[in-house]
UniProtKB/TrEMBL annotation:
GO terms for cellular component: cytoplasm. The lineage of its organism: Bacteria, Bacillati, Actinomycetota, Actinomycetes, Micrococcales. The keyword Cell membrane does not apply. It comes from Agromyces albus. This is FAD-dependent oxidoreductase. Keywords: Oxidoreductase.
């Protein structure tokens, strides 16, 4: 079998990539050694945060992702229908606080730098903070509200993205372990070796989370 892209890992990153690539018309195969969403995606909180990122590439990526999630959630609901559980996307906001005088200034300075980068970071007085969260530590010294912070149910979101990817032509194979790479005479990767046979591919995308280093070593690379 041959694909334009083989994706190693069926967590939320691999699932999102599979959907996007399949929607772009590429032949996509997702390979997962366990079950879909059974690794880090099953153990995370599903937080979609801008509050924890300072100005730079990571924040820009988070802001772009934040703009996509409402669209993706609506598309998934339309594509999959009511028989598939909702991904529970909710822009619920986040609240970051300091509990010492020494911690207040860095928090407020960080928020100020984020505002310059386009983040909605609202410094609150202590009364406003306690209105948002009455159970806050009474010793708080500063508070910043981030209305853009959101959350999804990560396992459902992953399964929904994979289901959508399948609708757009992707193949998802679970219980298949990638053991190495296929190479041409020049040394270029041309596919993967797996416990279920070889899969030729124009490109290989490693989305194995904390196991990506292990997968990369199977290809002779060091991450």
């Amino acid at each position: 079998m041959s694909s334009d892209v083989v994706i190693v890992g069926a967590g939320i990153i691999g699932a999102a990539c599979a959907r996007a690539l399949a929607m772009a018309g590429l032949r996509v195969t997702v390979l997962e050694r366990g079950a879909a969403a059974s690794g880090t995606s099953a153990r995370g909180e599903g937080n979609l945060l801008v509050s924890d990122k300072g100005p730079g590439p990571e924040l820009r990526l988070a802001q772009y992702a934040a703009s996509l999630w409402p669209v993706v959630a609506a598309e998934l609901a339309q594509e999959l229908g009511t028989a598939f559980p909702a991904i529970e996307y909710e822009r619920k906001g986040g609240l970051v606080v300091a509990t010492t005088d020494a911690g207040a200034s860095p928090l407020l300075a960080f928020a100020a730098s984020q505002r310059i980068a386009g983040v909605d970071a609202r410094a609150l007085d202590l009364g406003e903070a306690r209105t948002l969260e009455p159970e806050l530590n009474p010793a708080i010294t500063a508070a910043v509200h981030y209305p853009e912070d959101a959350q999804v149910q990560p396992v459902i979101a992953t399964e929904a993205l994979l289901a959508s990817a399948r609708l757009h032509g992707a193949e998802v194979r679970v219980g298949v372990t990638v053991t190495g790479g296929l190479r041409d005479a020049s040394g270029r990767i041309t596919g993967v070796r797996t416990t279920a046979g070889d899969v030729a591919a124009g490109a290989v995308l490693v989305a194995a989370g904390p196991w990506s280093g292990e997968v990369a070593r199977a290809f002779g690379a060091d991450l």
